[in-house]
Amino acid sequence: MENVISPNIIKNQESINKDKNAGKKLFIETYGCQMNVADSELVVSIMMDNGFSTTDEINNADLIFINTCSIRDNAEQRIRGRLQVFKKLKRTKPELLIGVIGCMAERLKEKLVEEEHLIDLVIGPDAYRDLPNLIKTAESGQKAINVLLSREETYADINPVRYSSNGVSAFISIMRGCDNMCSYCVVPFTRGRERSRDPQSILAEAKQLVVDGFKEVTLLGQNVDKYNWEDKKAGSTFSFASLLEEVARINPDLRVRFSTSYPQDMTDEVLNTMAKYKNICKHIHLPAQSGSTRILEKMKRGYSRQWYDSRIKSIKKILPECAISSDIITGFCTETEEDHKETLSLLTEAGYDMVFMFKYSERPNTYAEKKFEDDVPEDVKSSRLTEIINLQSKISVEVNKKDIGKTFEVLVEGVSKKSKDELYGRSSQNKVIIFPRKDYKKGDYVNIKVTKVTSATLIGESI
Length: 463
Ligand code: 5AD
Ligand code: SF4
Prior knowledge:
The protein is α/β, with parallel strands linked by helices. Helices cover 37% and strands 22% of the residues. It has three domains: 7-146, Rossmann fold (3-Layer(aba) Sandwich); 169-401, tm_1862 like domain (pyruvate-formate lyase- activating enzyme); 407-462, CATH 2.40.50.140. It contains 15 helices and 21 strands. The strands form six sheets. Strands 2-1-3-4-5-6 form a six-stranded parallel sheet, with helices on both faces. Strands 17-18-19-21-20 form a five-stranded mixed barrel. The radius of gyration is 23 Å and the shape is globular.
């Protein structure tokens, strides 16, 4: 029976680790998407269970983690720059451990420690449970690497520690990975296969957040519309629309958001569920990526411009008050002036509230990198990007102007950066609204009448 370890021995080992690490400080820095923010909260939870506490002061750290993003080359370059700073620190404090975690760790694997000698740990997004072992290995002076991806890991039983939260709004990860395989995208390689988390654990997490005083949750997944929990015993499945409804029913004062939706998979059932519950926020992030059907095909997005237009129409019909945002990549392989014009026309027709816009960045090992040439010159990418940014900023102002005179329920998130006499919060549509402080405080719902707008913010008065 050599392989059977008694639970007591595991418990004892855990407390030995905890004691050994007591007083040790973790400094963690997070780059990339909301999913990474949620992952850092899991990592902190696991580390605290192992005796560590967190610090905001890098000079006090015994261990530095950098949770990384690989989505575009410039994200990776920024992280490389930060690593230089950490390495400099380690030269003055040799016992300091440096760990690279997340997407870049997964993409580069052991190459990272070969290229950046002072890194001690390299940990992919599905290997965080192994942290206590990896820390021990690193403390013994060896390089600690775990970049195994999993088909099942959802960290369902780990309670995230909201170490940098505003106490009002929290992320809940409902699924991991992505099976879409868009031709430009590194995510399927860094985050692995798509898997959904047990709805019971999601609901329990949301209920606990309400008890802890949170007022808003954002359900996170790379493609939430593919959320699908199979209850093998009951022989039934549970869809995203059902999950959304269950979360909305926990408490009418708890706002529910979600991200990201996928045009091919977003159903009218989800839109109808949104219409049914006031506390499901009226905002959909529905990345188009391009307005040209020819480019969308090359991107392997699985929908045409016409299909995308029809999804926008459905949103506007079922949810007339709903804000829509998008992501656009400009300068994808073979993109012509004609294709670019179709993206401009998409921006105008969709009348987006907000758009994130990027230049195409070729990512190693993706389908596009293997099969197509990155043939749009850098200066053309830049000028097209400027053109779409300028157009969208005009559109955002026009869209926001329509809000002047309207009243929105705002959930207060904090004091405005510009003036301590003003508060800021968000409307259901995810628009930031600034207004005079009076006696309101963080976490309050306040009705605000909009008086002025810019492309990014609304300004108003409480009524
Ligand atoms: N180059 C530029 N932008 C990209 N995105 C994803 N991959 C790339 C890439 N290779 C953008 C997409 C996606 C957002 C998160 O990042 O627009 O929706
Ligand atoms: Fe998030 Fe994608 Fe960046 Fe990974 S590569 S951090 S999944 S945006």
